[in-house]
Amino acid sequence: MLITQIRKTHYDLLAVQRQGRWINIDSLAPNHVAKECLEAGTLKLPGLALPYAVHPESTWRDSRLDFAGKAADGQSWFVETKGVTLANGTLAAFPDAPTTRAVKHVHTLTMAQAEGYQAFLLFIVQLPDIRQMTIYRDRFPELVTAISTAKQNGVRVLAYDTMTGPDQITLGNEIPFDEHLPFSEINLNSL
Fold it and tell me: Recorded GO terms, molecular function (predicted)?
């Protein structure tokens, strides 16, 4: 059987170059990177023993989370992955647009943590040379509140930088995350 994909365009735009650095804008890339690294054990979830059994696109209650799994010691876990493409200098921020879906996912992770699962919110920063990560409070303040509450209830928030190019993205190192850091967008008129 021949299956043809119906598309509006003939090509995908995966990355753009701005001021000499490649920014991966593929919305599917963070989940692909996370899955590959979770399965390979190169993305270590704090407090969980390797190896992991990884199950993508898992439903729990009324939410679909990016990953569910079990650690080697039998501990069940959930990971929700968010791609980050917004930055000013070496500070990355999420979201680049208001997102009620992200708030729902954070609430779901908080409930899962309360019921004995280990819950993780994973930010994959899709551009290089980032040193820390925050939430863009002015864009969506409800997300800051949801994440602060989740952290107080044991949800772990992880942020990772990446190495990017015109056709590749590779997980880099964990970077500090603080949802209370101030963030402002670059003023394009000043460039």
Answer: DNA binding
Sheet holding 91-94, edge to edge: 86-88, 91-94, 132-135
Q: Find, among 74, 73, 64, 77, the residue nearest to 38 by Cα.
A: 77
DSSP 177: B
Q: pTM of the full predicted structure?
A: 0.91
**Exposure b/e, 129-166, CB count within 10 A at least 16 = b:** ebebbbbbbebbeebbebbeebbeeebbbbbbbbebee
Token code pair at residue 17: 């170059």
- What class does CATH assign to 15-46+58-177? alpha beta
SS3 content of the chain, % helix, strand, coil (to 5): 20, 35, 40
What confidence tens digit (pLDDT) does each residue in 164-173 have? 988 889 999 9
